[in-house]
Amino acid sequence: MITDTVSDLKQRWEALLADDPKLRIRNAAAQLGVSEGELLATRLGDGVTRLRPEFKAILANVPALGRVMALTRNDDAVHERKGAYLNPSLEQGPVGLFVGADIDLRIFWHAWAHAFGVIEGSREGVRHSLQFFGADGEAIHKIYLVELSDAGAYSDLVARFRAEDQTSPLVPLPAPAERPEQPDATVDVDGLRQGWLGLQDTHDFHSLLRQFGLTRVQALRLAPEGGFAVPVAPSVLRAIITQAAVEQCPVMVFVGNRGMLQIHTGPLANLMDVPGWFNVVDPDFNLHVREAAIAQVWVVRKPSADGMISALECYDAKGQLIVQLFGKRKPGIPELEQWRGIIANAESAHRLA
Questions:
Q1: Helix, strand, coil proportions of the chain in percent (round to 5)?
Q2: How far apart are CA 280 and CA 288, in angstroms?
Q3: Helices (DSSP H) in the chain: which residue ranges?
Q4: Would 250 be classed as within a structural domain?
Q5: Do residues 246 and 146 share a domain?
Q6: Radius of gyration (Cα) for the chain, nearest Å?
Q7: In terms of residue numbers, what domain contains 274?
Q8: pLDDT one-digit tens code per residue, 71-100
Q9: Greatest Cα-to-Cα distance within the chain, rounded to the nearest angstrom
Q10: Beta strands of 74-199 (E only): which ranges?
Q11: Which end is more exposed in the chain, N or C (fewer Cβ atoms within 10 Å of the end residue's Cβ)?
Q12: Could you say which of 160, 192, 217 is where a domain stops?
């Protein structure tokens, strides 16, 4: 019965592709009412190879691929960065790292469940990739070979981690329920504000949220007064990216999901609109944002040992983070004054009444 179901799903996917050969698998899955991973698994043995879920070991071998393209997305933003996977730290606790000038990742292992090697046709020719999914079948991270990648190392990696089971379908499990937001009246607002003002590192903000049981958006609503969290219009994202490109101000662009956070650091140059999406299309970095999905935008400031750190944070209607922007910086280095000026001017022009 499962085989019949898989066969039926594959046939329905093929019918969609016959009508629209350019249809992406994520969009096809949405139209068919299934997860992307579930749909991809219908091609096991037909260009798709299930890998053993030894994620740390697989990623430890990815640097051998050389230059590749890393892709991380959520429903409303896609982050694509070319480069090499360097300086891995994969065994230290619940979060793994790659920290390179090009590929900069924070990996949240708890959300990883499935891995595949994928060979598929595209408008650019045959593409080879490694693709990782959560238990719900939603994509977490993808690694695509590019012109200078080591195809032999890719083949060796897929062969080494090839799973014995190449026939079972991917049966998605429900995603963990989001933590409900507690009433503002029950929050220790004074404690939150004191903790916020006492931050020494922006990474400590996550601990602050856990300490007070808050969602990110609720914490922004209850932030200290004085410009620490200022609501602005969704148009500010385009304005800030455009101004940063004009001034060639190096920025940090964060896009993530439950299992991955991917970061680009550097200047932006080529901006483009396509229906429904605002895009950065630079040679080594692409960003695609569905502007209509942005329901809330905040200019957020947090103290640190290096001075105040300013960010732009964009959220969807459910309070999920779509994309974050910072000025380029490293620990021990103050925030760029150029970035502070850009974000302050945008805040003034786009501030909500």
A1: 35, 30, 35
A2: 7
A3: 2-19, 25-32, 36-40, 55-61, 151-160, 189-197, 205-212, 216-221, 235-247, 337-350
A4: yes
A5: no
A6: 21
A7: 184-350
A8: 999 999 999 999 999 999 998 889 999 999
A9: 63
A10: 77-84, 88-89, 95-99, 104-108, 114-122, 125-133, 139-145
A11: C
A12: 160
Q: Kindly state the tokens that stand for 167.
A: 């026939």
Strands 277-281 and 67-73: unpaired
Examine the domain organization and report whether 151 and 243 are in the same domain: no
Q: How many structural domains compose the chain?
A: 2
Cα distance between residue 100 and residue 266, in whole Å? 12
Q: Read off the pLDDT of each residue in 329-338 and give the average, rounded to a whole number.
A: 92
Q: How far apart are CA 138 and CA 337, in angstroms?
A: 39
Is the CB of residue 242 less than 8 Å from the CB of residue 269? no
Helix (H, G, I), strand (E, B) or coil at 239: helix
Compute the mean pLDDT over every residue in the chain, rounded to the nearest whole number: 95
CATH number assigned to the domain comprising residue 53: 3.40.1570.10
Task: Give tens-digit pLDDT for 31-75.
Answer: 999 999 999 999 999 999 999 999 999 999 999 999 999 999 999
Q: Are 329 and 311 in contact (CB under 8 A)?
A: no
pLDDT for residue 1? 36
Structure tokens at 210: 């856990």
| Cα angle 270-275-279, degrees, rounded to a multiple of 5 | 25
Same domain flag for 271 and 345 = yes
Asked if 271 and 241 touch (Cβ cutoff 8 Å), the reply is yes
Question: Would residue 7 count as lying in a domain?
Answer: yes
Specify the pLDDT at position 353. Answer: 66
Question: In this structure, which amino acid lies at residue 116?
Answer: F
SS3 assignment, position 104 = strand
Identify whether residues 213 and 312 lie together within a single domain.
yes
| Tens digits of residue pLDDT in 289-331 | 999 999 999 999 999 999 999 999 999 999 999 999 999 998 8
Q: Which pLDDT belongs to residue 122?
A: 76
- Report the pLDDT value the prediction gives residue 331, as an integer from 0 to 100: 86
Residue 251 lies inside a defined structural domain of this protein: yes
Look at residue 3 in the predicted model and tell me its pLDDT. 46
Tokens of 20: 């629209």
**Residue 40 domain flag:** yes
